[in-house]
Write a structure and sequence with these properties.
The chain is α/β, with parallel strands linked by helices and 493 residues long. It is 22% helix and 28% strand. The protein binds uridine-diphosphate-N-acetylglucosamine and calcium ion (CA). Uridine-diphosphate-N-acetylglucosamine binds next to β1, α3 and β10. One of its GO terms (cellular component) is cytoplasm.
């Protein structure tokens, strides 16, 4: 026996995402623009997902192929419905309802450009609508500046009687500060019926979803309006200024939550954390930090200043200073920077160190190993306790293919060593500074692979006569000669 659907549940969610987004002035469809780690559409779907609707339909049109591709990636359970011509939000809603089977329950319709909507706000709307027994309930908000938004017209008894778009509103209606959020919940059959009767007699010549309110009220149906607890929730996004403003608000929400949970954010104004990132209590985010994608920062870690981490894991007590990292995993107590670049596949063991001006890629750096200065480490496995001298290059590319280098435990790679892959340096081995290592080095060996030094005596005096270098050399020679000439020989300190 199947369970009876709860009266407060929604049977279907419809997201309107077919609009051009003309005001964005973009080759990218509006709903795909990103803020805080998700597209506009992604935020809306993340808010509706916990409501547990059996059906989710996304109306697509402008940029349909890319929007559908995106949808398949972020919400494969959602079904796209094509609105061939963008004839208005009412027409879009009608297209969605046609794509749905006959529903006994209620349907929630949401604009696809409202990234700040929260699940709790939607759930409260659905609940209030069911409790009141409304045929349709609209989410509204009281705002200081209603410019551009549909106004909620209430009758003398306070019930919602119409929604009037700003461009169609009378001066008195424009003075109303209660606005339409673009979120509606109602009876699917009644909505279908009313949408079939929506005209195009308005300033834009479009079918307005908002007109169903007046139609249903005229039918004698009960229509309600629920004011959102936080007016920020309903903010849409129509141009790039609004996109920036919504991003700022969403980021503030993320940072507030982090700070309340025990994270130190030194400068919220310059710290950006995606909704998909996580930071544990007692981590510290210094100014100019960006935590993007699936980045996770553990307790006691310090990130920044001026650091961007994308899809990285930062272990307990680790630190990253003025660096740019993506797809990297930093063990506990590891340290990175300043000024380093960690690329995907980098894994730093516990206590490992990547210092200044180092680039790494597909590199495993073992526990307590160090790459302190000016190196490139690509396609490498480095054991524990090893030290990679300054300016070492893991020469991984032969011009066609990439090759791997293995460096054992407690190895000492001399400064300016070229490790020409594929090559293996055995445990405890050394390489001499300036070596070009092309063959394997056995454990414990010292590999020297550089030209023998030759000093050409007196060259500067002969070939650079009169230069400051020659004068300095002559003065040094004269001092040496007088020292050896004096009784008692050379001085000792
Ligand atoms: C809409 C509401 C307005 C409300 C505001 C809240 C209407 C007529 N007006 O105005 O009352 O205050 O949202 O932000 O609905 N869309 C389609 N197909 C179309 C046209 C639009 O799918 O043919 C989608 C858009 O992608 C968008 C949504 O419908 O997600 C709303 O369209 P938009 O043009 O942004 O409406 P607004 O002018 O913002
Ligand atoms: Ca809009």
């Amino acid at each position: 026996m199947s369970a009876q659907p709860s009266p407060t549940a929604v049977a279907a969610v419809v997201v309107l995402a077919a609009g051009q987004g003309t005001r964005m002035k973009s080759a990218t469809p509006k709903v795909l623009h990103d803020l805080c780690g998700r597209s506009l559409l992604g935020h809306v779907l993340a808010a509706t997902e916990p409501l547990g609707a059996e059906h989710t339909v996304v109306v697509v049109g402008a940029g349909r192929e890319v929007v559908e591709e995106h949808l398949a990636a972020i919400a494969p359970q959602a079904v796209p419905a094509e609105q061939k011509e963008q004839r208005g939000s009412g027409h879009a809603a009608a297209v969605a309802l046609e794509a749905l089977p006959d529903l006994a329950g209620r349907v929630l319709i949401v604009n696809g450009d409202s990234p700040l909507l929260r699940t709790a706000t939607l759930a409260a709307l659905v609940q209030a609508s069911a409790a009141a027994g409304d045929v349709l309930t609209v989410l509204t908000a009281e705002v200081d500046d209603p410019t551009g938004l549909g106004r909620i017209v209430r009758g003398d008894d306070g019930t919602v009687v119409a929604i009037v778009e700003e461009r169609d509103a009378t001066p008195e209606q424009r003075a109303i500060r209660e606005v339409n959020a673009g979120v509606y919940v109602g009876n699917a059959a009644a909505l279908r019926d009313a949408l079939g009767r929506v005209g195009e007699d308005n300033d834009q010549g479009e079918q307005y979803l908002t007109d169903v309110v007046g139609l249903l009220v005229a039918d004698g149906a009960q229509v309600g309006g629920v004011v959102a607890g936080d007016p920020d929730d309903i903010l849409g996004c129509n141009d790039r200024r609004e996109l920036a403003a919504r991003r700022r608000l969403l980021n503030d929400r993320v940072l507030d939550e982090l700070m309340l949970s025990g994270v130190t954010v030194v400068d919220p104004a310059t710290t950006w954390v995606d909704v998909t990132a996580s930071v544990a209590p007692d981590a510290v985010l210094q100014p100019g930090t960006q935590l993007l994608g699936r980045t996770a920062v553990a307790t006691g870690a310090v990130v920044g200043p001026d650091t961007t981490l994308t899809d990285c894991e930062v272990g307990e007590g680790a630190s990253v200073v003025r660096s740019h990292c993506s797809g990297a995993v930093l063990g506990a107590q590891a340290s990175v920077g300043p000024f380093s670049y960690l690329r995907p596949g980098t894994r730093l063991g516990r206590g490992a160190k990547v210092g200044a001006f180092v680039e790494t890629k597909n590199a495993d750096v073992g526990e307590n190993s160090k790459v302190p200065h000016l190196s490139y480490v690509g396609d490498a496995t480095i054991g524990r306790g090893a030290n990679i001298g300054a300016a070492t290059v893991f020469v991984n590319y032969d011009g066609v293919a990439k090759h791997h280098t293995t460096v054992g435990d407690h190895v000492r790679i001399g400064s300016d060593t070229m490790l020409v892959a594929p090559v293996t340096i055995g445990d405890g081995a050394y390489t001499a500074a300036g070596s070009v290592i092309v063959s394997d080095v056995p454990p414990g060996a010292m590999a020297v692979a550089r030209a023998q030094q030759r000093n050409v005596g007196g060259w500067v005096r002969r070939r650079r006569a009169g230069s400051p270098a020659a004068e300095a050399a002559e003065a040094a020679e004269a001092r040496a000669a007088s020292d050896t000439g004096s009784p008692g020989g050379s001085t000792t300190a």
